[in-house]
Design brief:
The complex is a heterodimer.
Chain A lengths: L11 H5 L4 E5 L31 E6 L4 E4 L9 H13 L6 E4 L16 H4 L2 H23 L6 E4 L2 E4 L6 E3 H5 L3 E5 L24 H6 L14 E6 L8 E5 L9 E7 L2 E6 L2 H10 L1 E4 L11 H7 L15 E5 L2 H7 L2 E9 L2 E2 L7 E7 L2 E6 L4 H12 L6 E5 L11 H15 L3 E4 L2 H7 L2 E2 L2 E9 L5 E10 L7 E3 L2 E3 L6 H5 L11 H5 L10 E8 L22 H19 L3 H7 L4 H14 L16 E10 L6 E11 L5 E11 L6 H21 L28 E6 L13 H4 L1 H13 L10 H11 L1
Parallel strand pairs in A: 1-8, 3-4, 9-20, 18-19, 23-26, 29-30
Antiparallel strand pairs in A: 1-2, 2-3, 5-6, 6-7, 9-12, 10-13, 11-12, 14-26, 15-22, 16-21, 17-18, 17-20, 22-23, 24-25, 27-28, 28-29
Chain B lengths: L11 E8 L2 E8 L4 H8 L18 E4 L2 E4 L12 E3 L13 H8 L9 H14 L5 H7 L10 H18 L1
Parallel strand pairs in B: 1-5
Antiparallel strand pairs in B: 1-2, 3-4, 3-5
Classes of the chains: A alpha+beta, B alpha+beta.
């Protein structure tokens, strides 16, 4: 592992000192960037650029012409690092294979906040592009001086600057830099390339990490090894709210390799010389716990959500009472409507389900702390760790090591607290990996949700009223937030809570969970409310089920509600669901994706549903669901399903996706993210549900929490990409998952006339809905 | 060979196993899984542990050419046998296995944590079934879980690798 254990905390500037190079950074003076925490107003490159109080080098070009990007963006298995290098190489005009990357390391890379919300390209590429454009500009100016020609006469290709029309007059970046050191500051005055000139951006460059991942040489967080490292495992309470009464250390006295049993409040762990020794010791350690059984009965969860008091402190001032949109008088509009309908949509808790359980290595020493972690927020977690240990930030170094795909906040941050506690107790580096059951039982879940909707149509089948009331817990329990930057708090981590940390975590969460719950259709009078229930964890809150952000945060539930209900209104109006949607849409980009998807899939207009057209138990149908609005990615998808009315089994056979995420950096990466989002969405929609008894989560393995495998994957996912190089890049990883549940429900309705309003759409749920309808 | 008392947590046994073509001999705990032996003792961390009970397939390795779960086997069980891990698939340091090549070319992974198990499973499969249909590939890896769900690219990569291997042979 390249981690230089306890290397002095030199700071990034020092690290860059070496032979000749050109480094470009954002200035302290404020000439650049109104970008981070205390930054002054200045040319705005995006909200997540570097902090003005942290002088950082972003790009360093060496004498051999290789450019290294120092990025704070955490690669989550989506290919974002490759795409960021494409952006840098494009602006620098260097060959892609001359672009190198230093992954997040708080001693070396700038603070780029949280790599979440599909922002890695949409937001974090912006300052990188600017820094690269300015570095190129500076190098071209140096060449202009060398050749005594105006910069306009120079062209750059593969890192070589040439004078137009003067063969032989050329110089490489490496030669320009020579043995000297250049320390440039970003000014914001240089304009990045016109997208029409892009040669690398917009092409399916092969991902830089794949070769190492197919040969086994890649180091995941789970593979990090440092000298003298010991192995730890944790022992979690058997009930979410249970506390330790007694630990019987003699219960593992017969086991080999035990170094120490560690307890900090209710955080229990064992440290051993070898990993399998720690597993066995944790398994056999006898701990007696207090009884606790205060979870609601699982079958009542949606009713319980309605009974939890609103968490007022977490509701932003601009949404008083959780009201997200209010226009006109919904009550009178409903009273006056030619037709009024209502519906309730429900969903369970969902698991991120990373294939590799969370793992971290911590080395807590008197002179400083080093952490290896698969976090999504390197600086935020470092700050949280420092607070947890009572240290200054600069005494803690966090080195990012990629984990298994996370799809939101899994246990990556939490396990760091475990590792810190265990390492501190033994004075040696300790690697802690959660067992599968620790991960599935103690990670953050997507909150269970319930939403009531009412809507009205006039005599012409136009929507005149829309009201929705949603209930749900937070979509956030990270140690850091970024709009505005705040945090570095351990309080939201369940392991810190177990260890007795009582200072609250972040209050953020409303924005994520309520995201996109307002309809993007023209609906007349509207009243959209999100009854925000605040943060919750296994150790805190009115319902002790831990919640946090999962792919799309609140959007998949909110879009499930909006896109199901718009379909129900279309059916009530006796209208074709596509035509009905188009009639109520105004955003041209959203209309464009609807048209692209329906054309590609050969949509046949039909009123209500076509169930009556088929006989027998096997029925097929098609449904549309879309999402569009704001600065976000637009998406429209056609789902084709086959339903067995007798068994209740639903199979998604084909999905046609039209997708507009603005500028596309890597079309191959975009396609993969869309495909992953759709299939994972189908998995969540058809089969996933975290189960619990009165004490604890009970779906602890892949048998009790099945996820989709090959036989259930659609035969085809047909993707139409609408590239808009003139627009900024928007997020990709989450968009394609948002509309999946509604898309399936709408297709099932078309196939059978049965409306599914409660996730997951298991055979039992289908049969229940069928019986209810009959 | 030492006899081991039932329930003896500390018993050790000497084993010799050929891993990626090299004979590895040493003393291991009788309770040590093959996965832990590979990852800890041989530092072959390409074999990933996902579920610890044989369900996810991330730790799949080849035992005498057959795909098996390394988390379900004890190191002592492979004494005298031959093990191939993902690190041993490539014919040389500079040449990748056709499946590895195809995974690179077809973007056959997202996070890549499940990939070693996919590759070893598919190596065995293509030996038995060198000219598979897409459907057969799907069935072949139905026991390997991928949460990123990059399934289609995996099928494409496998079909392409199969074609290349047929051409090459």
């Amino acid at each position: 592992m390249d981690g230089r254990l306890n290397e002095p905390h030199l700071g990034r500037r020092h690290f860059l000192k070496g032979a000749g190079l050109l480094a470009i950074s954002f200035s302290l003076s404020g000439a650049m960037p109104g970008l981070g925490r205390a930054a002054p107003a200045a040319p705005k490159l995006g909200p997540y650029g570097p902090a003005a109080d942290e002088l950082d080098s972003w790009i360093a070009i060496d004498t051999a012409g290789f450019a290294t990007l120092y990025t704070g963006v955490c690669e989550l298995g989506t290919g974002s690092h490759t795409a960021l290098l494409q952006v840098m190489a494009e602006e620098l005009d260097i060959a892609f294979d001359h672009a190198k990357l230093q992954p997040p390391d708080t001693n070396r890379t700038p603070d780029q906040f949280v790599s979440s919300g599909s922002r890695s390209i949409a937001y974090h590429a912006v300052p990188i592009r600017q820094a690269a454009a300015e570095a190129r500009h500076a190098l071209v100016a140096m060449a202009a001086e060398k050749f005594k020609v105006p910069a306009e006469q120079l062209v750059v290709e593969n890192g070589v600057v040439s004078v137009t029309g003067a063969p032989g007059k050329h110089v490489s970046y490496g030669q320009l830099i020579g043995g000297r050191q250049f320390d440039l500051k970003v000014t914001g005055a240089v304009k990045p390339k016109d997208p029409s000139l892009h040669k690398i951006v917009g092409t399916p460059v092969h991902r830089i990490d794949i070769p190492g991942k197919v040969t086994g040489s890649f180091t995941f967080a789970q593979d990090v090894k440092v000298p003298g490292m010991l192995h730890g495992r944790v022992v979690r309470p058997p009930a979410h709210g249970a506390s330790v009464i007694e630990i019987d250390e003699s219960s593992i006295a017969h086991l080999p390799g035990v170094v120490k049993v560690v307890r900090k409040a209710d955080l229990i762990g064992v440290v051993c010389h070898r990993e399998e020794e720690a597993i066995e010791a944790a398994r056999q350690l006898k701990v007696s716990w207090s009884a606790w059984a205060d979870l609601p009965d699982m079958k009542d969860i949606h009713q319980k959500l309605r009974e939890v008091p609103i968490y007022a402190p977490g509701i932003p001032a601009k949404y008083p009472g959780g009201v997200i949109a209010k226009d006109g008088d919904v009550e009178s509009a409903l009273t006056g409507a030619a037709k009024a309908i209502k519906a309730t949509y429900e969903s369970p808790y969902h698991l991120h389900g990373s294939i590799g359980p969370s793992c971290a290595v911590a080395d807590v020493r008197p002179d400083g702390v080093t952490i290896w972690s698969a976090t999504q927020t390197a600086y935020g977690l470092r700050e949280a760790a420092a607070k947890f240990l009572g240290l200054a930030n600069d005494k803690v170094r966090l080195i990012f090591a990629e984990g298994a795909g996370c799809y939101g906040q899994n246990g990556a941050d939490d396990v760091v607290i475990d590792a810190l506690v265990l390492s501190q107790a033994v004075g040696k580096p300790v690697r802690v990996q959660w067992m599968r059951a620790d991960e599935t039982g103690w990670e953050t879940y997507k909150t269970a949700r319930v939403t009531d909707v009412r809507g009205g149509l006039d005599a012409d089948g136009k929507i005149v009223a829309w009201e929705s009331n949603a209930w749900g817990f937070s979509g956030y329990s990270r140690p850091e937030y970024h709009e505005p930057k705040q945090g570095g708090e351990p309080g939201s981590l369940v392991t810190a809570q177990l260890a007795g940390w009582t200072t609250p975590g972040l209050e953020e969460g409303f924005n994520g969970i309520a995201l996109e719950s307002a309809p993007y259709y023209t609906v007349g009078s509207k009243h959209v409310v999100f009854n925000y229930l605040g943060p919750a964890s296994h150790r805190q809150g009115p319902i002790r089920m831990r919640v946090g952000s999962m792919r799309g945060v609140g959007s998949p539930d909110n879009v499930f509600m909006v896109e199901s209900f718009i379909d129900e209104l279309a059916a009530a109006a006796g209208a074709d669901p596509v035509e009905f949607r188009l009639k109520h849409l105004s955003d041209p980009r959203t209309i464009a994706v609807v048209k692209a998807a329906t054309e590609r899939a050969g949509w046949q207009p039909r009123p209500a549903h076509s169930a009556s057209a088929e006989n027998g138990d096997i029925r097929t149908g098609r449904g549309i669901a879309l999402f569009g609005g704001g600065k976000e990615t637009r998406i429209a998808s056609i789902f084709e399903v086959e339903v067995n009315r007798k068994s209740g089994a639903i199979r998604v056979k084909k999905v046609t996706v039209a997708h507009d995420c603005g500028l596309i950096v890597n079309p191959d990466g975009v396609r993969n993210q869309i495909e992953g989002g759709v299939i994972q969405g189908i998995s969540r929609g058809l089969m996933e549900e975290v189960t619990f008894d009165r004490s604890r989560v009970t779906s602890l393995d892949w048998a009790s929490y099945p996820i989709i495998t090959f036989p259930d994957v659609p035969d085809e996912i047909d993707i139409v990409l609408l590239n808009r190089p003139d627009l900024p890049a928007a997020g990709v990883g989450e968009a394609s998952t948002k509309n999946v549940w509604a898309g399936i429900a709408n297709a099932v309705f078309d196939a059978t006339g049965v409306r599914l309003r409660r996730l997951p759409f298991t055979p039992e749920r289908f049969k229940e809905a069928l019986a209810k309808q009959a | 060979m030492t006899s081991v008392a039932v329930g003896d947590e500390t018993a050790m046994r000497r084993i010799g196993v050929t891993v990626n073509g090299t004979l590895q001999a040493g003393e291991v705990s009788v309770r040590l899984t093959l996965a832990d032996f590979l990852r800890q003792d041989l530092k072959l961390t390409g074999t990933h542990l996902g579920c610890e009970h044989g369900v996810c397939g991330a730790c799949t390795i080849l035992l005498d050419g057959r795909a098996v779960r390394a988390c379900l086997l004890l190191a002592v069980q492979v004494d005298g046998h031959s093990v191939t891990t993902v690190e041993g698939l490539a014919p040389s340091a500079t040449v990748l296995h056709p499946l590895q090549e195809a995974f690179c070319a077809h973007h056959g992974l997202q996070c890549g944590f499940c990939t070693p198990g996919m590759l070893t499973t598919l190596v065995e499969f293509l030996k038995d079934c060198p000219d598979p249909s897409a459907e057969e590939v799907r069935v072949a890896i139905s026991g390997n879980i991928c949460r990123c769900t990059g399934y289609d690219s995996i099928v494409e990569a496998t079909l392409s690798a199969a074609a290349n291997m047929r051409d090459g042979s």
